Amino acid sequence: MYDWLNALPKAELHLHLEGTLEPELMFKLAERHGIQLPFENVEALRKAYSFNNLQEFLDLYYQGANVLRTEEDFYDLTWAYLLKCKEQNVIHTEPFFDPQTHTDRGIPFEVVLRGIQQALKDGEQKLGVTSGLILSFLRHLSEDEAQKTLDQALPFRDAFIAVGLDSSEMGHPPSKFKRVFDRARSEGFVAVAHAGEEGPPEYIWEALDLLNVVRIDHGVRAAEDERLLHRLIDQQIPLTVCPLSNTKLCVFDDMSQHNILKLLERGLKVTVNSDDPAYFGGYVTENFMALHESLGMTQDQAKRLAQNSLDARLV
Ligand SMILES: Nc1ncnc2[nH]cnc12
Ligand SMILES: [Zn+2]
Q: If you measure from the C-alpha of residue 34 to the centroid of ligand 2, how many angstroms do you get, rounded to a whole number?
């Protein structure tokens, strides 16, 4: 089944480039820049990847991103991910990056962007993997800081297909960013947002009604609100679901509890994605495989999930 799932043509629509930083590359970049990591070796770092919630993961993820300093680093990070896409027949990807994670450390916006953009361009030309980059705002920071990030992005408008919203969900509802999303949309950006990962269904309503998003990232807590489910089904709003992420961050206690196949069978446009594969134990094929092993996902269901990902592309 693994080889069959791996060969299935698919798109990845929920992937944080910073979350593809494998421990081996983290150590290599640390050495490149003379940075001392607070872990003895790759094994010790991997052992630390045990989380009780989203925030525990984010603390380690932001710490890890500290080794990303130069255009070459961002190129190497992105290229390694694109090689995985090629290996797993991900023919199209729409990755996020978090500019504020880097600009707040003094790394210029254009250094980050140039490295990523060059790798994405090479990915299309040399690997045949097409892509569209999504600029994501950090929701634990202020609206004002998101506005400044949008200002920095505008001179590079054509580099992006959309804006997104990620980081600590609880206490940072989509409504906090209504004005910056209004401005982004007036500049021609499409919008997506993380909602209903740890946060309540109300955050999904806000993402739809206040931010006017065209896709919901995660969205699994929509299952708690029947009226919301009808809305998502009627409008065929795609949900970019991340099964391994949801179990690693204890959104579900166990993969056998995951609701993705129930949502699929109810008619929601759900897709399978890896979120932060270096931290959660697998890329897209491993996510599909976990659904097969723990939920008995059939080949027919896998085909429909993969087709949903191709249909839900923004470009
Ligand atoms: N799963 C996730 N939820 C929110 N923000 C993130 N940033 C990286 N991964 C994330
Ligand atoms: Zn995410």
A: 30
The Å distance, Cα 150 to ligand 2 centre, comes to 20
N residues, the chain: 315
Query: Of ligand 1's atoms, which has the minimum distance to the CA of residue 197?
Result: 3
Q: What is the pLDDT of residues 63-104, one digit of tens each?
A: 999 999 999 999 999 999 999 999 999 999 999 999 999 999
Rounded Cα distance, 7 and 244, in Å: 20
* Exposed e or buried b per residue across 35-73, where buried means at least 16 C-beta atoms within 10 angstroms of its C-beta: eebebeeeeebbeebebeebeebbeebbebbbbbbbbeb
This prediction's pTM: 0.98
**Nearest-atom index, ligand 1, CA of 249:** 1
**Token pair in block for residue 18:** 């910073």
> Which stretch of DSSP H or E encloses residue 270?
strand 270-272
pLDDT tens per residue across span 203-240: 999 999 999 999 999 999 999 999 999 999 999 999 99
**Dihedral sign for Cα atoms in the order 134, 140, 141, 146:** positive
Give, as one character, the DSSP assignment of residue 126. I
* 230 is annotated as contributing to ligand binding: no
